[in-house]
Amino acid sequence: MQSNAALEYDYSVAKLFTYTAILFGLVGMLLGTLIAAQMAFPELNYLFGQYGTFSRLRPLHTNVVIYGFTVSGVFATFYYSAQRVLKVSMAESKFIMFVGKLQFGLYLIAATGMVVTLLLGITTTKEYAQMEWPLDILIVLIWVLWGVAMFALIGIRREKALYISMWYYIACFLGVAMLYLFNNMEVPTYFASGGIGSMWHSVSMYSGTNDALVQWWWGHNAVAFVFTVPIVAMIYYFLPKESGQAVYSYKLSLLSFWGLMFVYLWAGSHHLLWSTVPDWMQTMGSVFSVVLILPSWGSAINMLLTMKGEWNQLTENPLIKFMVLASTFYMLSTLEGPIQAIKSVNAIAHFTDWIPGHVHDGVLGWVAFMIMAALFHMAPRMFKREIYSRKLIEAQFWIQTTAVVLYFTSMWIAGITQGMMWRAVDEYGNLMYSFIDTVTVLHPYYAIRALAGVLYVTGFVMFAYNMIKTMTSSKVLTEEPQFKSPMA
Amino acid sequence: MFHWLEKNPFFFAVGVFLVIAFAGLVEILPNFAEASRPVVGLKPYTVLQLAGKNVYMKDQCIACHSQLIRPFKAETDRYGQYSLSGEYAYDRPFLWGSKRTGPDLHRVGNYRTTEWHENHMWDPTSVVPGSIMPAYKHMFSNAADIATAYAEAVTVKNVFHTPYGDDIKAGKKAWEAYRPKVLAEAKKIAANMKNKDVKDAVNAGKVPEIVALIAYLNSLGSSRYEANKVK
């Protein structure tokens, strides 16, 4: 192999995951909008019989957006950018290509299985770990295949030093592997009882308070290692690439990375404040949540300062807009989280709509914005065509930004209203409101949130349309663009 | 050191793993034995109640209802005594939930009745005007999976030493022998219900989901251990 010949990267696996990211994004966000609307207009619960109630669809929504949309985005960007930062092509190794495609095939089977079983109500109910044991085994296999592909690519790399994005992808792989295995330890009842009942059912290895601890150690860090770590990997690659700017500070990257790795895991118990887990664990969760602001803001500030002196690009390039706003929402979300993790605030915020509000300024404003920007950046390079429409991206940006703002402001108000009403007492010290009073008062906010959902999905449809047009009928490029993605 | 790590992926990965695993070792492991001890007198769920718990899981009641009463006056006034760790000793999985779109249910058995649940699950607004909870009419016709619930009881007894009686043991024969006990318990619940289809089904030897669910909901609260306390 000539070392000075230009590498021809192979994007076949990256393309496959791009398709599923678009598909699952659309399905997951439509489901989210439907269940948001159900909370404002309960008649919508009866569209699909027993399969259409809020309670059945809510876990389906979370799982499809996490494991369908986000994880597809993670794999797509990984199979795209890992080749480039390691300076190897997937085409150089039949083995790696095979592993990548096998991983995609199994992923598709698991994702389909996930949708079907959750609709049927086959679930462990542990949040973001709802899938039952046969699917868990399949997911472990998929994850191992990803690890094999990752380390095989690293093994044959030409660029000896690992770029920052690779650090984060490796951490995503290791962190999820460890947490997923421990949280999904379960015993299938069919085999333990001599063949009675359903094959699918299992019981958790842990009970009660312990189960809660392990679950939220996982649940919180699923947020860390799926919604944060690989998304940071993306922004470290795509923002410098799209803007043509070098990353602002290597030292800040180091501090943020190792800081995030060390601090994140401790914060899991902030989901269990005022519960029956030991008090010292709760306090640890609170304290480390506040410390977590440092490495989170470190990455975000590093990215914003990368644009130093180049802020004009913000008006010239809509993809930069998406990434800069994503970075900003990341800062908002990682400040809001620690605030909610303070025990006195948590006493009001926990169990209310402020929590989904917090989650969504993170996932809509940070995760989804970053994934869409990354896929837009990849499209002209993978499909050798320019992006179909710049106007459409601009419109999408403003529609979706409005949606995110409507979403979190309405849920902030709803959550705090709810939290205050639950504890309100009259002059004699009696509770002022019955529970239903605290539900009916939220109707306008639920309606606004549903509207936010409609807007966000509208933006996503524009994204999907733009991507499909780019793949099929946009102007063909003769040369690979270096920095700014070409768009009509 | 960091430059060296970045050129040696294996050691880099080992380093990352150690750094992220550390918190788990310190924070998760130490209290395992302590926290899983049951409160004095706590009885495990009956097979019918387990079947009901599985209905609760299948239809994801957990999406809107918590089972965790926090130690605040506003919560104990509304729901009863705050939750104790030992009350959850037989809960696999834990069902604390993370969102209260509807009220907490950890002690719902202390203050709601079979009749109330029957009306509520058929049409929530009939007992709670303004409720946004969907009706769960399909629970009145779907059969509860009592065989799987029995399998679960056998599993937790054999694997985790949950104190069930000798009549709960592995194998299909043992299950056939046990089945009438589940039906007898279901009949007691159905006796307080008015839905004719449900009553007919129970008399014909079937257990509709709603019957199992109500058995479970009635068990939530202090009834599982109050009566057995050493006086």
From TrEMBL, chain B:
Its EC number is 1.9.3.1. Pfam families: FixO. Keywords: Heme, Iron, Metal-binding, Oxidoreductase. One of its GO terms (molecular function) is heme binding. The keyword Metal-binding applies. Gene3D superfamilies: 6.10.250.2250, Cytochrome c-like domain. Residues 47-155 form the Cytochrome c domain. This is Cytochrome c oxidase subunit CcoO.
